[in-house]
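HOLO CASE FILE
Compound: zinc ion
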Amino acid sequence: MYNYDSVIGNDKIIKSLKLAVDNNRVNHAYIFDGVKGSGKHLISNIFAKTLNCERGEDSPCGECISCQTFESGNNPDIIYVRRKEGDREIKVDTVRNVINKNIEVKPYRNRYKVFIIEDADTMNTAAQNAFLKTLEEPPEYAVFLLLAENYNKLLVTVLSRCQRFKMQSIPSPVIKDYLTLNKGIGAENAQLAALYSQGSIGKAMELSASEEFNSLRKVVMDTTVRLLETDLIGMYELAASAEEYKDSVDAFLDIMYLLYRDCLVYKQTGRNELLIQGDNIDVIKRICGILDTRRLIRGCELIGNAAEAIRRRGDFQLVIEDLFFKLKEK
Ligand SMILES: [Zn+2]
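Model generated. Tokens follow.
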């Protein structure tokens, strides 16, 4: 059930949203900006449910018809705007058909008509311009909730009409406690997932539930070291065998990034207790023996760029080959 009680962290955002309802000062557009798993979907959905709850309080009652239809996914006044399957962008026809035509029709039974735009930052320029026309003069009942991982991909003209909430990252001890107390995850597993998730509760839950996570860690550790020690042919072989992990490419790159980050920390401090993966100190020492600080910093950047390219739906094999090649460059 969608309720604020089920949200971990992000207290300030929730407080602002409740205040807006209490003071009857709901804006026409909000941006929820944050990484995958940071709670954008959960919070925006609870807010949408609240706006149309018949009791009109700052949290959804969960019992009225509007709340019930929301829970069953049939609330006619809460509309999801999504990228078409297989598309990299939200295109202008989606904005025209799902938003601009729909907005003329008054809410079916509720006070507001709420549009939840998922991956709003993937709206292409034409789509954003079409959206802007509606955003400039929205009807009284319209509320737009834009979910974005990179809010700066949105046009300034769109941004200026939205209230932006930056999703907060949740401290890893809080995530660890949540996983052990509420999800029954073992302490060690929870600790690791919390550290890897970098403040994202959704990601932590996904990782802690994944049996493949630990084996993936081993693969990434192994690949990272071998990549630095092998020749060019070996490099292409490693890139080809990484194909097997295509579906977990986000986790693959995250682990690699954090390994580089650990090496950098170790190189500069020599302190084991500051490492996220101190259980792999041998690997960290080996990499530190090969790479200097400059290459470690560059490695972090390159892995970050590769992750971004994948998010923009770049070709897996090309991105990985390019990354591996550059990581080997002296
Ligand atoms: Zn209700």
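CASE NOTES: The chain has three domains: 4-166, 171-209, 211-328. The mean pLDDT is 92.
CLOSED: yes
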